[in-house]
Prior knowledge:
single chain, Rossmann fold, 6-stranded parallel β-sheet, two-stranded antiparallel ribbon
Amino acid sequence: MATIRDGSKSVLLVVDMQVGVVRNAWDNPRIILNIVTAVEKARANDIPVIWVQHADDELLIDSPDWQLVPELLPAKGEVQIQKNFNSAFELTSLEEALARYGATQILLAGAATNWCIRATAYGALDRGYDLTLIKDAHTTESIELEDGTKVEAADIILDLNIAMKWLSYPGRINRAVSVNSIDIFRPL
Length: 188
């Protein structure tokens, strides 16, 4: 049976906008600016902002690369969550934070598209949340495969934007919209 959440409260979830994660990411100055805009809009609309930071053997807690980019810093009282897996839901306090806010809709932005954003998006939908992927507020790096094939970052981003527009889950709504869309913070 599908989990469906009643209500229409939103949160903005900003995932892994850390120095070491986005240093070489595709179009990162524009993406960072778009996330700044999303954060400003969320705060202006009294929508809670939740910040997620990844840590692992290559991204050590409190290291310079682990820090959030200087343009994106939590305001006093905004929730900060540490994670060790791609999905922001796995073995974290995210679901408890969402429950405290009564959230039923997640607006999602951050990095890296093909790993943490994808895993978190599917994790949200699997747990019964409505999802708005901010299609011009997530990024990643291009990938070069062992056989020399290169998958361009822009294509990875486009693929997830298309998926979030066309996926179908029972009783849930998902979409991909730009940060400047006039209805981005409208309940689904």
